[in-house]
Amino acid sequence: MGKILVIAEHDGTSLNASTAKCVACATAIDNDGVDIAVLSADGASLCQQAAALAGVARVLKVDHDVFSAQLAATLAPQIVSLADGYTHILGPSTTFGKDLMPRVAALLGVAQISDIMEVKGPYSFLRPIYAGNAIVTVEASAERKLVATVRTASYRAVSSDGSAAVESVDAGADFPTHTRLVEIKASSGDRPDLQTATKVISGGRALASEENFSLIYSLADKLGAGVGASRAAVDAGYVPNDMQVGQTGKIIAPDLYVAIGISGAIQHLTGIKDAGTIVAINKDPEAPIFEVADIGLVGDLFEIVPELEKQLG
């Protein structure tokens, strides 16, 4: 049995890429083998996906109907019941992990470390503060269990050439009854998921309306990219808030990030600092986004974007 337990994120059918990135962080802490807990209603297929991740020693298959809704209130007690024998419990720094892992830490009576971006030692980590403007070294006590979230934008997913054992575990937690799933509202479509897309096109307040955001969708579809937005665009009502990129939105690390009509406030830059290539299109040559962009185009987005799409064929 490994010393580190990673909590799998999934949609009931497929593992989220964040899980493979958490395993990458876990193996940097201890490469003797990592365990993954898959909590679901029927996790056979999910466990096979988890077992294939390189560096995984064992997959814990925990099936229960209550896990068909991935609610932190019901997942956390089960994770605590699995915690014996583990020194570290890791989850992704995604919406899922940010909701779940603090509950796990509270039930275990320990403090959580958030956004691990580099491992310096078994209990020593780097994490960002001040919207990513500073990086601090955090030291945790080896005397207590360590609960943490992993900044998935800082890690590459491990390969899928492993062959870990899968072990069924009875769901034995005392599940709370005060929380229930009422409704899930999620965007639909064929575009790649924003948090896992290798290419992302984002629009800002300069689009000026919800209707004009169609320029972003059209270009993204041409490139096979995910679609994001600045906080200003979300606050203005152009797009839903699940598309927000930045410190208070989604932290992403695509190979290509195109910022269109985005000035580049610090909270937005925090969300894209790990992107491979950043392209900025803005009519203001003094916009902060150009300070981090690898390629910058100064001009009217309403002229540049259609021309760019035309050139793409």
The CATH homologous superfamily of the largest domain is called: HUPs
CATH topology term of the largest domain? Rossmann fold
What is the total number of structural domains?
2
Question: Strand percentage, roughly?
Answer: 15-25%
In percent, how helical is the residue content? 25-40%
Q: Would you list the SSEs in sequence order as H and E?
A: EHEHEHEHEEEEEEEHEHEHEHEH
Reading off the top of the CATH hierarchy, the class of the largest domain is best stated as: Alpha Beta
Radius of gyration: 21 Å
Oligomeric status of the shown chains? Answer: single chain
Total strands: the figure is 15
What is the residue-averaged pLDDT?
A: 92
Number of helices: 9
Provide the fold topology:
Blueprint: E1 4-7, H1 17-29, E2 34-40, H2 44-51, E3 56-63, H3 72-82, E4 88-92, H4 95-108, E5 112-116, E6 118-121, E7 124-129, E8 134-139, E9 146-150, E10 165-168, E11 199-203, H5 214-223, E12 226-229, H6 231-235, E13 256-260, H7 266-270, E14 277-282, H8 289-292, E15 295-298, H9 301-312
Parallel strand pairs: 1-2, 1-4, 2-3, 3-10, 4-9, 5-9, 11-12, 11-13, 13-14, 14-15
Antiparallel strand pairs: 6-7, 7-8
Helix pairs in contact: 3-4, 5-9
